[in-house]
Amino acid sequence: MNSKSVGILVALAGAALFLSSATRADAPKPAATTSRPDGIALLPAQVRLHGPRASQQLIVERVGGGRYVGQIGEGVTITSSNPKIVTIKEGRAFPVGDGTATLTASAGSHQATATVVVEKSGAPYDWSFRNHVQSVLTKTGCNSGACHGAQAGKKGFKLSLRGYDSEGDFDVITRQARGRRVSRTDPGRSLLLTKATATMPHGGGPRIEPGSLEYDVVSDWIAGGCIPPTEDDAEIERIEFVPPAAILQPKDKQQLVVLAHFSDGHVEDVTGWSKYTTANGDVATIDDEGLLTVTGNGEGAISAWYLNKLAKAAITSPYNNAIDDYVFENAIKRNFIDELVLDKLRQLQIPPSPRSSDDEFIRRLSIDLIGTLPTREETIAFINDDSPDKRDRLIDELLERPEFVDYWSMRLSDLLLVNSEKLKPEAMWAYYNWVRRQVARNTPWDEFVRQLVTAQGSTLENGAANFFVLHQDPLELTETVSVAFLGMSINCARCHNHPLEKWTNDQYFGMVNMMARVRRKNGPGTGNVIVFSDTRGDIIQPLTGKPQAPRPLDAKALDLDDPADRRIALANWLTSPENPHFAKSITNRVWSYLMGTGMVEKVDDVRLTNPASNEKLFAALADHFIEQDFDLKKLMRTIVQSQTYQRTSVPVTGNEGDDRFYSRYYPRRLLAEVIIDAISQVTDVPTQFKGYPASWRAIQLPDSNVPSYFLESFGRPNREVTSEDERSDAMGMVQILHITNGDTINKKLQAKGNRIDKLLASKKPMSEMIDDIFLAALSRQPTAKEREQLLAAYQESGKGQDRAFLEDLVWGVCSSKEFLFNH
């Protein structure tokens, strides 16, 4: 960079301002109104107390606009209509005798009631090993991964992680260590209790307090004869949060209650025995007893885990913007996406940014749909077009461009790991060409995936069959299918029940056996492998030592002895409109590519404990995709036609911190391949890739192993594992140094016949040359201030310096954030 470049950078400083909150669109005016609670609620509204040991925590909520808007902690009284049936102590209901009673909560002038049914209050009560002892061991961390739930256990004592194997844990506790872990005649001397209370030296320290409910559960179970888990035990069916959602303010505290529903119809308050996590700690935190504290504005997701069941609660903490309803009611709404996004913004009191300018839109859309900058001529024609449907027409035109096939073949090749590291070149080309044909034909996504997971025959004749060459281990194949087509990681269930999802160890191995019979043999010719399905062969479930019946996760199991190709049944389940995961996975992935961030983020980690930023939109977009017969182009069209997509990236006052709710378009760095192609386009000098024609662009490369220091530096994925994390959009020192001082731009500036040569040969005035470069790189003309500064810098450069000035200008533009980011 020479001294003139400093002036160029000064003139281009405005090109980075789109990323700064210093430049904002007009903000909506705040409203002067506030909402007031219109009543209270006593929760749970229906209480069942089963047995003499039962109790239920009660909470009183303010209600406003049909929603819970905060817990009332003081000035509340709760009374029982019949103390002979139920009594209230410190906010908890306790059984006295069988029957039905009404509880009444009073707070100021408001009242609310709840019904209580007490049953078996006088019957003997035995704690269950499966449902209660295991809960104590889990809550206290005894069977956690850091303690005895570790793969090797601790000090010779190994439990299943979080108690997923009750039968095995029962044997370990009652029969190993010469039976010293339990003393039926003197429970207090049981190692299980003396260690947990630290009465005897214990590396994990005290875990249970003597005299606590947890201590009594374990002690009473031992004294009762250590009753083992049986098939007659009531099985847990589900858990739920009460309340399931609430609107709160920073610093508010909210007690959440967790109810467990069992197969025999009884319900237990398991709030104190549940484990809690939060997906958004900057909005809300929660302690071990379910007491939530609001820490900021936004939307928080709280998850509870109890006996392998999960529940979630949503906490909304609106921003202190108080935006008038007319802002949301009068906002442009092109389709259902806008309706649902604006509903969420209204709830959170986040104002939307206005519509993007035409130059913003054509550049953004071209990059997002075809991975290519619009040309100078395309930009001018679009800006000068006054027809009201020009944006829709542009969308349709880009969806049919050949570059669309190039770009989306590259994106799907990332997902499917097309590379020559594990495949011979002939096979790699066959695989890539299969992907490319599907994109060109706009093959419906369900048919695309069906062809892939049932592929067989020669990998050179049926490129899709290379999927099974890349993934030969049935366990790794299962995990890849789950991530790529369901958007979920089930890896944890390989060793134990998934701690953050509903998937069990049995379900994992059932899924594995859906693909365990895929076989391969060498065919004639280099890279040719014959893929076929065998009629025998299954993976053993390590826990049982037997093959697990083949089963597509939460579907029905297949006959273990059926010789048919199980992948057909897998494909039927996987691509079914009734499968709640399939459509959501790809819509979330495509949404993230177009909008900058997924509704569920990360897009490879869709799970109950990682909820979408807009659950209604997440479901509606998936339903729309199914209704459109899994048509990816129609999905993309719907997204980019929305006002949500077409908003400016410039924040308004009140939405500067929003990075989840789509109040504006989120700027993001261009993909490595798009950047190098854009530099080639702006300089009019193609990039030569070894082994490929000089005219080939980076988005056309089929292989992630094509040598390129630039692509590697700017985060091109290696395509080794199915994960969006493989691709990086970092903009650190390595990337900055390469852009500013590397060969990629500088060599193109010196190449003969480049854009600068053509501009100089045209004899245009310098002002027009500057316009040409801005339109080619940024899809806009320079502002009046930029033009003034650049022309001043040109005059200072002196005679005979036209080329040097233009080189510096192109270098400065291609080094700017405005060029390197999509906005």
From TrEMBL:
Gene3D superfamilies given in the database record: 2.60.40.1080
SUPFAM superfamilies given in the database record: Invasin/intimin cell-adhesion fragments
One Pfam family per UniProt: PSD1
InterPro entries membership: Big_2, DUF1549, DUF1553, Invasin/intimin_cell_adhesion
Signal sequence coordinates: 1-25
Keywords (A to Z) from UniProt: Signal
The BIG2 domain, residue ranges: 36-117, 235-316
Keyword Signal carried by entry: yes
The protein's name in its UniProt record: Bacterial Ig-like domain (Group 2)
Species name: Kolteria novifilia
